[in-house]
């Protein structure tokens, strides 16, 4: 299992498609972008921002029902990708034992944000779908500065004539 952190919800341009971005907490810090629906993106965003709706949204209602039944979400695992569709599991615990429910990753993440449950991905999924993070800006800046210094060293006053 690979521990993940939620980087945030973004809108992919130019398609204008919402996506959730997860990042490996340790090691290579690979990224796992998952395209999601607009309602789920809004639900995750509201929870991240701490917005309290006047009435419970679907994910709030689900957590309230679990609590009323004496259950809680213990962890979320993004398990696999089949036919360009991601799958996840909601792991729950109660006095009656542990249960696992299949879920869309977006719904599972919306629950995790609300209740503080940890996020994970299977090792196989991260190996197959994890993306290397982009180069750090400092590295790019240092390279650009070195190139500019080389340019200045080769510069002659005649070059401006």
UniProtKB/TrEMBL annotation:
BFN domain mapped to chain residues: 1-133
GO molecular function, one term: nuclease activity
Annotated InterPro entries: BFN_sf (IPR036104), Bi_nuclease_dom (IPR003729)
TM ranges: none
Domain of life of the organism encoding this protein: Bacteria
The protein's name in its UniProt record: BFN domain-containing protein
Originating species: Ilumatobacter coccineus (strain NBRC 103263 / KCTC 29153 / YM16-304)
